[in-house]
Amino acid sequence: MGISKNIDLTAQDRRRIEGRGWLYRQPEAIRTAVLEACVLIELGSGESAMHLGGEDGGLYGLIEGWLDVLISPGAMEPALVHVATTGWWFGDSALLTRSPKRGAHVARTPCRIAHLPAEAAERMAREGLDIWRSIAFISVGVIDHAFAAVAANRCPHPLERARLTLRILLGAGLPFAAGAPLDPPVLPISQAEFAEIANLSRNAAGDALRDLAQQGMIRLGYREIEVLDRRALGLA
């Protein structure tokens, strides 16, 4: 875990974290209270913001950078299921239930993260803010994200599955995931990593991505996928 500096977020940090994702959709009183209570955490590439099974408390919101989201149900090896960027919040389930963490979040790039300590959330509740209901909406968004990923992985056609997976990675149609000017045009993932997330073989994923590139929807670079035509992918 990166070191919490116990300092307030900068004005730019605040604009970014409330400009996309869960906080963007919350009432002004909740937004203000959360931003006032958050402290900054900085991670270097490869550092973990959250460990599987960890019990450290609080809520985390990604201000800047990219995080690998990994899960390990039961005895399974950790699997990459998402690559998250600005506006992605996590730690909600453990905070709400006081149970061990269900996922790991590892910095793919240097990251700035807003940390809302558990005691700060409890204080907001005592002061009459409906903070627990607001935080529960993060969990709802994660469930919707998981259902969308399961539905995409059931698609038997690699090209359509690749298209759906790109849309999910960019947050299309998912609560608190997208819909603001900060939506990213470039995903910093390799074709092999995309194949893992889409549950496709590397050959099938590569063929599908090249097909989408030939259609002018995306550009394939070194360990990155750039979206060129959002509408053709079904994005707003």
From TrEMBL:
Q: Which residues form the Cyclic nucleotide-binding domain?
A: 22-124
Q: What Gene Ontology biological process does one annotation of this record name?
A: regulation of DNA-templated transcription
Establish whether keyword Transferase is in the entry.
no
Instruction: Please provide the record's keywords in A-Z order.
Output: DNA-binding, Transcription, Transcription regulation
Residues in the signal sequence: none
Which InterPro entries does this entry report, sorted A to Z? cNMP-bd_dom, cNMP-bd_dom_sf, HTH_CRP, RmlC-like_jellyroll, WH-like_DNA-bd_sf, WH_DNA-bd_sf
Q: Which PROSITE patterns match?
A: CNMP_BINDING_3
Instruction: State a single Gene Ontology molecular function.
Output: DNA binding
The keyword Transmembrane belongs to this UniProt entry's keyword annotation? no
* Top-level lineage group: Bacteria
Name used for this protein in its record = Crp/Fnr family transcriptional regulator
Origin organism is Alloyangia sp. H15
